[in-house]
Structure formats: structure tokens, C-alpha cells
Amino acid sequence: VQLQASGGGLVQAGGSLRLSCIASTTIFKFNIMGWYRQAPGKQRELVARFFPGGSTLHEDSVKGRFAISRDDAKNTLYLQMNSLKPEDTAVYYCNTYPSRIPWGQGTQVTVSS
């Protein structure tokens, strides 16, 4: 089982993107879900978490700009990214938190200045 993120692309600084990740109802029901990213030459880092009860946590680097959400009817996890900065450039992944599922390919987000 892998979780495949989609929705990345090239955007100018200040722009927006929405990432999507489809998972099974079981995965969503019993796990904290997370969005992660890995910039070139850096370790993968957690960006945001969605808890089974519906609460969310965002890391300081994206707080106020990114929003994690989930659509249970579509079994889809989202990451709405606004006010993008060049330092947000990375490959973005979704997984449980902590990560338990083999990493998918991720989706590339490139923010130009």
C-alpha cells in the first residue's frame, strides 16, 4: 500500500496550490495523517497533521499559510498552500504520523521568486 500525493506544480511566490492524497477509510479512521516535505539536500520534515477527531496541527514554518483538511466522502486528504515562498520548494508526501506506510513518489512543488 502506498499513498500517492498529487497536485504539485510550478508557481510564483505568493501563489497557491492544493495537494491531494487518497487513502482508505480504514487508514483515515485509525491514524493521524500527515503532510511531509523534502527539499533538495535536506531531510524529510513534517508540515501538518490531521487527527482522527478532526483537529489539526501545523508546523510554525507554514502556520497561517497552509491548511490541512480531509474529505471523508472522497477519502481524500488535502493541503491547501497559500502565500507560497521559494523555501516551500520541495517534494511533498502524505503518510500516517508517525509514518508507517511505504513512501510514495510524492508531488513536486516548485516556487519561483
What do you see in this structure?
- The strands form two sheets. The protein has a six-stranded mixed sheet. Strands 1-3-8-7 form a four-stranded antiparallel sheet, with no helix packed on it.
- It is mainly β and 113 residues long.
- The relative contact order is 0.32.
- The termini are far apart.
- The chain has one helix and ten strands, in the order βββαβββββββ.
Task: Write the SSE topology.
Elements: E1 5-6, E2 9-12, E3 17-22, H1 25-30, E4 32-38, E5 45-50, E6 56-58, E7 66-71, E8 76-81, E9 90-97, E10 107-112
Parallel strand pairs: 2-10
Antiparallel strand pairs: 1-3, 3-8, 4-5, 4-9, 5-6, 7-8, 9-10
Task: Offer a quick outline of the entry.
This protein is mainly β and 113 residues long.
Which shape, going by the Cα principal axes? globular
- Rg for CA atoms: 13 Å
Distance between the termini: 36 Å
Largest sheet: 6 strands, mixed
Work out the helicity level: under 10%
Oligomer: single chain
Structural class: mainly beta
The proportion of strand residues reads over 45%
How many helical stretches? 1
